[in-house]
Design a protein that fits this description.
Distance between the termini: 40 Å
Structural class: mainly alpha
Order of helices and strands: HHH
Shape: elongated
Number of helices: 3
């Protein structure tokens, strides 16, 4: 499961990198492309986090009496997913027209 968490974190870092590239990219269509790549990385990180949650849940089902550090990671993954969704909302907001409404 540690490998899954490190992969998810790697994808989150890539998402931030591509989001930063999107901010300064010229011509504008290139910024849209980078923003799309960033969103894909966020979704990949979420999928891997869910896979880690499922594996952690399976491990705790096998030994429910033992307190596992893996259960702590599940809570961290949930908060990271919420952060990922917040990032997506911010990034999507950057693409809105200057009036701020859709």
């Amino acid at each position: 499961m540690g490998n899954l968490l490190s992969r998810a974190e790697h994808y989150r870092k890539k998402a931030v990198k591509y989001h930063e590239l999107a901010k300064v990219a010229r011509p504008p269509y290139l910024g849209d492309f980078y923003r799309g790549v960033a969103v894909r990385y966020i979704f990949m990180a979420q999928e891997i986090s869910k896979q880690g949650e499922n594996e952690a849940g399976f491990a705790t089902e096998l030994s429910p009496a033992a307190e596992s550090p893996a259960t702590e990671c599940v809570g961290e993954d949930a908060s990271r997913d919420a952060q990922d969704l917040d990032l997506l909302a911010v990034w999507a907001g950057e693409k809105l027209p200057p009036g701020g409404s859709e």
